[in-house]
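[agent] plan:
  1. take the single chain provided in the ticket
  2. run structure prediction with default settings
  3. attach structure tokens to the ticket
  4. add a short note for the reviewer (M.T.)
[agent] executing step 1
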Amino acid sequence: MCVIIVREPGVTLDKTKWDSAVLNNPDGWGISVPDNHGQLLTIHSAVAEGEELYELLHSEYKDDKVLIHLRYTTAGETSLRNAHPFPILEAGPDGVDMRMCHNGTLPLWTPGGNDLNKWESDTRCFVRGFVRPLMKRFIKGMSSEDILTDPFIDGVLDDHCTYASVLTFIDGYGNVSIVNEKGNGGFYDEDGTYFSNSYSHDPEHRLPYSKKAGYK
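[agent] step 2 finished; step 3 output follows
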């Protein structure tokens, strides 16, 4: 599965942990950076570019809050169209940008092997079929900040997730919501950075047991 990182402004990510996270999640990345006026800059890649992204995060975006997703493909193609964060709301029609990342699996939203959209990831299908329509209804009567802090909306989203799924939202003002934040072993480090799991920091996580250090 993937890893989600919410990096606070001015925080330097541990390079050793970063390298392990990229090693374990090599199937693309995406970031969303709020301008704090309602819009998000979102950049995607379908391939792992750990060094370039690390440099970008600590140069051009070093003073910004950033939502980061490193992907490990479990459903759908490894392609730019399946890279997170996914668009939920847009400043033009909705008055504010909002994006979402997912760590985990959503079996009920995974296309079948014979479906025409079998190239799509489970997250992409979930966003299109449920999350985006839901948020577009709520934004008509609520601010994005209220949406991202509403316990009822959190519960509705959580009910559609598996126990190990984590959903993370960010809007163009820098408001963040994490649904089931501890579900996949999520935690905050001493700098306030959120990681949706800790196993991505283990460089041997994807190795067969027979090849791990200390295995006999």
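[agent] step 4 note for reviewer: The chain has a mean pLDDT of 92.
[agent] ticket updated
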